[in-house]
Specification:
The complex is a heterodimer. Chain A is an alpha/beta fold. Chain A is 52% helix and 9% strand. Chain A contains eleven helices and five strands, in the order αβαβαββαβααααααα. Chain B is of the alpha+beta class. Chain B has two domains: 6-91, Beta-Lactamase (2-Layer Sandwich); 103-227, Histidine kinase-like ATPase, C-terminal domain (Heat Shock Protein 90). Chain B contains six helices and twelve strands. Chain B has helices at 6-10, 30-35, 41-50, 111-125, 145-157, 201-210; strands at residues 16-20, 25-28, 57-67, 70-79, 84-91, 107-109, 130-134, 141-143, 165-179, 182-192, 214-217, 221-227. The longest helix of chain B is centred in the middle third of the chain and has 15 residues, at 111-125.
Amino acid sequence: MKYFYTKSEQIQSIIKGLNLTKTLFVSSIIIGPEYTGKKSLAQSIFPHAPMVSGEDQEKIKTALAGSDELIITNFEKIKNLNDLDFTNKRIIATANYMGNSALIDDIFAFIYTMPPLIQRKEDVDYLKERYIEEAKSILMIENSTIDTEHIPLDLSLNTKSLKRSVYTYLIKHTMEAGDIEEILYHYLLKHLEGNDAYRQYLGLYEKPLIKAGLEKFGSQLKLSEILGINRNTLRKKIHEHNIDQEL
Amino acid sequence: MDINFEPFVEWDNSPFVLFNNEGRILYLNHSAELLFGSVNPKELYDLTLAYASAGFGYKTTSLALSYDAFMFHAITVGYENEEEISLRLYHAPAVQPKSKLQTESLIVTDINVLLEANIALFQAENNNPLKLLTDQDLPLFKMDQNHFSKLLRKVFHSFRSSDSIDISLKLLIGQHILINNKKESLAGLKITANGRYVESDEEIKELAGKNQIKAILKEHSILLEIPLIQ
C-alpha cells in the first residue's frame, strides 16, 4: 500500500476527511495544480479502487457499472458529465482546476483544495531528501562530499520541477573532465557553424574559467597569476564576456 | 347569560396578545407564549400598530409572516379604547413536501461520521475554532449521503468567517414527523456563531427540503431538524 507523506495541516485534514468517507457513498474531489500529489493521495487512501482518466469517458462508464468505488483522474477533461450517474457510488476525483464550478458544486459533496508545494515548506524538505537519495541510487553517485544544502529548487511545476532540480544539480556536481568534454563535443557537433565560431564558442570554456577563478581567488591580480596571463588580457576578457556585470 | 371566554382564548391554537398603549403585555395566551420564543414582543407590538384600523374596531389583514418555524397567513388587530390593543395571528397550513421521498434508495448512515468528515473538510480550508457537542448514541438512520453531505458543506461554509463556532447534535425528544405515513423521530443539528454569511440560504433551504429536513436559518445560527428515517 502506498503511503502519502505530508506535514501540511491542510492536507492532513483532507486525509482525515477522506478516511472518514471510506465507508460512505459520497463524491469527493481534490482540486489543485499539476504534480501536487492528488492522485497518490487518493490511491493511498483507496488502494483497491479502480482508477480511470477523465479523458476516457467510455472507460468511466464501464468502471461505474462494475464497481461502487472509483478514482477518476483529470476530471476536468470529462466532456459529457450528464452521461454519468454517481448516485450511491464512492467517487474520488482529481482535477487540475475547477472548470465548471456550478457543476462541481452540484455533483460533489466534498470539495478539497490541494495546496501547491510552495505553500508546503516541510513537504519540500522531505521530498528533496527523498529525491536526493533516489537520484544518488539511480545515478550511482557515491561521492558524499556534494553540497546538497544549497540546491536551487524550482517549485514552478511542484514535484516535477523539484525532482528535475535535484537530478540536474547532482549530475552537474558529479561530472568529471571527460564528461564535460563529451558534453561539449556533442553540443559543438550540433551547433558549430558561421565564420567567427572560434571566438564565439571559446566563451563556453573561458567564461566559466574566469568566473570560477574570480570567485575562488577574489582578485584579478591573483587570478592573472594563477592563469599565467597578462592582467590586461584578463581584464579585456572579463569585459568581453560581460562577467563584470554578472558578478 | 354570563360566559367566561378567557379559557377559550387561553387555549386557542392561534397566538393572542393584549398590549397596553406603551407596548407592555397585559395578557398572552398559551400559543403566544410559545411564539415569544422566536420573536420579541417589541416586533409584534410594532406590527400591531402598523395594522390597526384608523378608528376603534377590528381589522383583519392577510399577510405572510414567519418567525423561525412559526408561519402565519393573517392577523387581526382590534381596540375599543385608547388603553388596550389586541393582536391575533392565524397559523398558515403546514406545506406538505411536493415530492414523495424514495426511501428505498437511501443508505443507513452514522450521522456522526458524516459530520466529522464535514468538519475535516471545513478545517482543511479554515482555521476557525470549533466546538462539537454530539450525541454518539443517536441511532443510525437512512439518508442520501451525498445530498446530506452537500447540505452540511453549504451550512458550514456559511460560517467560514465566524470567530467561534459551536456545533451541537442531539435527539429532539418527543418530536416527530410523518414521512410516507410513517412516524419518524427528529434530531437537531445546530450550528451557532457570532455571525454568518447568508448568500447560500436559499440553496440550504432547497437542499434541506430535498432531504425532508427543516432548516431554520437565523442571523447567528442554523438549526437542521433531521428526520431519523428507519
